[in-house]
């Protein structure tokens, strides 16, 4: 691995600019990464507060806190903000910070575009959230915005929603182009593709997924815009269109999208588990190929979201088997993580706790996914809380725990301080308990037939819903505590050495902590 | 690495973006072709020109349904609930529409067949759904549909439903003021 790079020795000593303009105009990958991460965390708290409204209303049967119309806006906005505002920007933030450090590049390949793709996001979400204050309210048609609910029957604010999605799409596509260009063009000499850390690999593949499907999302909202304002009939049966077409186009985007939200987490966990097992990752090559296989398969399974819509039996069978096939490469990954830990000298620092919980709980989500993949069974499960349980098990302990694990793992590198280990562990355990309390009972009420996206429910579901709500409040409050831990770590704490984790591998640990403003101005040597 | 290859890479990625955007729109005609080819989603084809010999050894029950899309105020119903038909034979059913309002209105009927896999075997030789309907205030018309159930209909299917949904398209296609019930394509 390389020697420590000292910028000052190269007579290139300029640090960050001072004041607010540093952040507005910055083209530095670390600054932009930081911006993305803070933005994501802000959206996480905002989307989370909407979830608190939902769980407060569902605490008891009956309508007590919000109007059904507002409840629908809350479920819609919660989904949109978490998917597009919290999870995706968090991974772009991690990519910005870590990819150049991991491949020995001085910065991202397109720094100015990088600045622009970040600043589109606050604009997009300001537009989206502002719709809540318009007469008629914000989007209320679910994060999947099925037509004609989102066209013929939509509130007037749907136009703002469409433009917000356009902005987010442009931002993601530019971010993805940047990631690909950085990885393909700026690797240090000797950093061959098959030497790249898995986080870089999974991001490379994610970036291609983004470029493939974000334009399709842009297309589908554009069709909505035309149906609403220009008299076309893409989704209106009266004019020769078909609302079912909407679902096909949406899910052609939507299923790869769920992998966009999980692949980078796979990559991060594949660095963290070896570090705390003090063993190299088991089956590196198979991990790379499994990621590729998952990405490919994600394009041919979309109709598993549409089993009840009415597709021919052959179609049901095709999409059922194709979906089940995804479990194979996913299983390879889980097997590799477990084998990495097998007979390792494990220690359980906070990043490792989150990573292990990731493996276990994500697998539970994968299993409920397999149940949903069985087309005839899905006729019963579809649109119940069972689906809600499934995707929260893959997204919360999957994507979100992956982000937490990454944050704790790299915080020493970012801030130059160790975080408070006791508080970190407390954060983990409270999140773990809260998350399971909130989402596990949803399996039961879902199987018993409780529909999703409804503000009221049958008395028989009351007890489990109360448990869910208590768990959700615990999980929500715990995340404010996480904010406190991060701020405490930025403000001070035990100084972090260049490599705070003795088992960690990778170029990012060869530079001092905190990472200097400019790194790898001259490429490091990779042996 | 040199700047040129970066530029070329970015251009290619941008091109891929544009291609995928176009692909999203290409899904629209692609979907229609697939639906027609495989009878997916209960979509029936256009006017059928062929003819077949009746298979008197077999009979299928065809049920008729009519639904008004929301906001549609016409009375719209089939003159009979169902027919027992032989595959291959030409059959006819009369649908009735009545505009109870005091303004001229136009409407479009959209057919659909259940079960969906039978849609490809249901041929309409004549249908009011091939054109739009314009009714003057208080006007009432009889609209025939003539159809053949294909002889190759899978034997497992013994019962078909032909459902029409009637949409109000007055806003999009304002009725021509003097139009009457004598349009071509709406025989009788
Ligand atoms: C073994 C892997 C997986 C399988 C077999 C699977 C299968 C399914 C199926 C069949 C559905 C549709 C259920 C229905 O609506 O009736 C579904 C929904 C969903 N899945 Fe998965 N899934 C898997 C992994 C994932 C992952 C990794 C994620 C995200 C990180 C994810 C996110 C979602 C979401 C968000 C929905 C619900 C979308 C909605 O209707 O709002 N799934 N899954
Ligand atoms: Cu899916």
Architecture blueprint of SSEs:
The complex is a heterodimer of chains A (527) and B (188).
Chain A: H1 20-25, H2 29-57, H3 68-103, H4 111-130, H5 158-185, H6 198-229, H7 243-260, H8 263-277, H9 284-297, H10 313-341, H11 350-373, H12 375-381, H13 385-415, H14 421-447, H15 462-491
Helix pairs in contact in A: 2-3, 2-4, 2-15, 3-5, 3-13, 4-5, 5-6, 6-7, 6-8, 6-9, 8-10, 8-11, 8-13, 9-10, 10-11, 11-13, 11-14, 13-14, 14-15
Chain B: H1 3-38, E1 60-68, E2 75-78, E3 82-85, E4 90-98, E5 105-114, E6 122-126, E7 133-135, E8 140-149, E9 159-168
Parallel strand pairs in B: 1-9
Antiparallel strand pairs in B: 1-3, 2-4, 4-8, 5-7, 5-9, 6-8
The complex binds protoporphyrin IX containing FE and copper (II) ion.
Structure, explained:
- The complex is a heterodimer of chains A (527) and B (188).
- Chain A has 527 residues and is mainly α.
- Chain A has helices at 20-25, 29-57, 68-103, 111-130, 158-185, 198-229, 243-260, 263-277, 284-297, 313-341, 350-373, 375-381, 385-415, 421-447, 462-491.
- Chain A has a single domain (2-9, 25-510), classed as Cytochrome C Oxidase, Chain A (Up-down Bundle).
- The model of chain A is unreliable at 1-13 (pLDDT under 50).
- The radius of gyration of chain B is 22 Å and the shape is flat.
- Chain B starts with a helix and ends in a 20-residue tail after the last strand.
- Residues 178-188 of chain B have low confidence and may be disordered.
- Helix content of chain B is 19%, strand content 34%.
- In chain B, the strands form two sheets. A five-stranded mixed beta sheet of chain B has the order 3-1-9-5-7, with no helix packed on it. In chain B, strands 2-4-8-6 form a four-stranded antiparallel beta sheet, with no helix packed on it.
- The interface between A and B is large, with 37 and 35 residues.
- The complex binds protoporphyrin IX containing FE (HEM) and copper (II) ion.
- Residues 255, 258, 304-305 of chain A line the site of copper (II) ion (CU).
- Protoporphyrin IX containing FE binds at residues 144, 258, 261-262, 304-305, 323, 326-327, 330, 366, 369-370, 372-373, 378, 381-382, 387, 390-391, 394-395, 398-399 of chain A.
